Amino acid sequence: MPTSQDMTTALDSGLLDALQHQVAVFARRAEQTRLGGTGQLRNSMDRAAYLLLNRLDQEGPMGVKALAAGMGIDSSTVTRQVAPLVDTGLVKRTSHPEDGRAVVLQLSARGLARLDEVRASRRQLMVEVTEGWTAEERTSFCTLLTRFNTALSARQSAAAAHPGLPTAETSESANGSADGTGGESAPTS
Question: Which helix (H) or strand (E) element contains residue 177?
Answer without folding.
Answer: none
